Amino acid sequence: MRFELTPRASISALWRALAPVLAFITAFLIAGLVIWLMGRSPLAAFQVYVTQPLSDPWALQEILVKATPLALIAIGLSYCFRANLWNIGAEGQYVVGAVLGSWIALRTHGTDAGLWVLPAILLAGIIGGALYGLIPAFLKTRFGVNEILTSLMLVYIAQLILDYLVRGPWRDPKGFNFPQSVTFDPAATLPPIFEAGRVHYGFVFALIAVLVTAVILGRTLFGYRLRLSGDAPRAARFAGFNSKTTTLAVFGISGGLAGLAGMSEVTGQIGQLQPSISPGYGFTAITVAFLGRLNPIGILVAALVVSLTFIGGESAQIMLKLPLDLTQAFQGILLLCVLSADALVSNRIRFVVRGGAK
Fold it and tell me: What is the DSSP letter of 323?
């Protein structure tokens, strides 16, 4: 006996709206069971993971800070995923954007450079990420190389370049031999939105990216082109849409936004270049993109939820002695629950027994 998924003739709008809610509840129940099996109280874990961060002003700011790179990268990835192209290397594009922008910050360090420095740094970050994202796109369009493999392998090259620079030519000579650059000048850092706050203007960039992407995907020919290329590639070719141009465009956009995320994190959150500029934002953003159903508003909400799990996970590690890896496991469970809920809303389960159907 086996079961198959067959498309439903009509999809209930109510169930489609309730699907992510039920998926979140299911994910929390599964996580609670795991925590109970580990000998901890699920209610105490829920309080540490969810209630305390949402009631603490400092934690709320940290949620926005961590959601910023996740939202920017995931928005960029949504362009690729909608066109049925798989950019798995956003982590590398994030790093290269941070490296190229930091080059300008370090070149102007200690000088009387004016207001042009910060825009130039951010623009360099976008260009660096876009160029690095175009490498797997070029290899795919020119030689037919699988973009999943190339984009993923380029991540490790980018991380090794970063590690070499901060341990070698860009290392702070007064940094007690730590692998880090000098601290950027105030003119080369993103200021906080509110005085004495933690949330910097990178979050504004994320909001702008969400709004612009919502317009592009929903109101422009380019957005229609992406949807058609992903849903019906043959129809896209008949309509005259060039698949190679689409591939280059979406990888460039995706890499550019990842590079902007990297530069925003370095200039706004960290203030210097170091090997640990990312706890895996580029990979986590893949989860965020699908949790948000590749919808810009949904991605913003998903970024906030996932960043909440990061903050809650750090607190649970201290207060409940739970491993931090449990947070990543919960994020994976959450993604599986959301995708499963969407699949069950769009399809019905048909059990097949000995060639017959039930």
Answer: -
Alpha-carbon distance of 317 to 315, in angstroms, equals 5
| CATH annotation of 58-320 | 1.10.3470
Burial bucket for residue 169 (CB in 10 Å: 0-12, 13-18, 19+): exposed
Using CA atoms, how far apart are residues 50 and 53, in angstroms rounded to an integer? Answer: 6
Dihedral sign (CA 158, 163, 169, 170): positive
pLDDT in tens, 218-255: 999 999 999 898 888 888 888 888 899 999 999 999 99
Tell me, rounded to whole angstroms, the distance of Cα 148 from its chain centroid: 16
Structure tokens that stand for 117 in this block: 């420095």
Q: pLDDT band for 269, please (50, 70, 90 cuts).
A: confident
Q: 3-state DSSP call for residue 19?
A: helix
CB 319 within 8 A of CB 41: no
Separation of alpha carbons 265 and 90, rounded Å: 14
pTM score of the predicted model: 0.93
Q: Are 71 and 300 in contact (CB under 8 A)?
A: yes
Average pLDDT over all residues of the chain: 92
Domain boundaries, the chain: 1-40+322-358, 58-320
Strand partners, 357: 352
Q: Residue 288 and residue 303: Cα distance in Å, rounded? A: 6
Cβ–Cβ under 8 Å, residues 210 and 296: yes
Strand order in the sheet with 347-353: 2-7, 347-353, 356-357
Residues 6+ apart with CB under 8 A from 354: 1
Q: Is the pLDDT of residue 314 over 60?
A: yes
β-bridge partners, 2: 352
Q: Taking a C-beta distance cutoff of 8 angstroms, is the pair 97, 261 a contact?
A: yes
Residue bearing tokens 């159907």 = 357
Beta-strand ranges (E) seen in the chain are 2-7, 347-353, 356-357
> How many residues are recorded in the chain?
358
Cα–Cα distance between 140 and 77 in angstroms, integer?
17
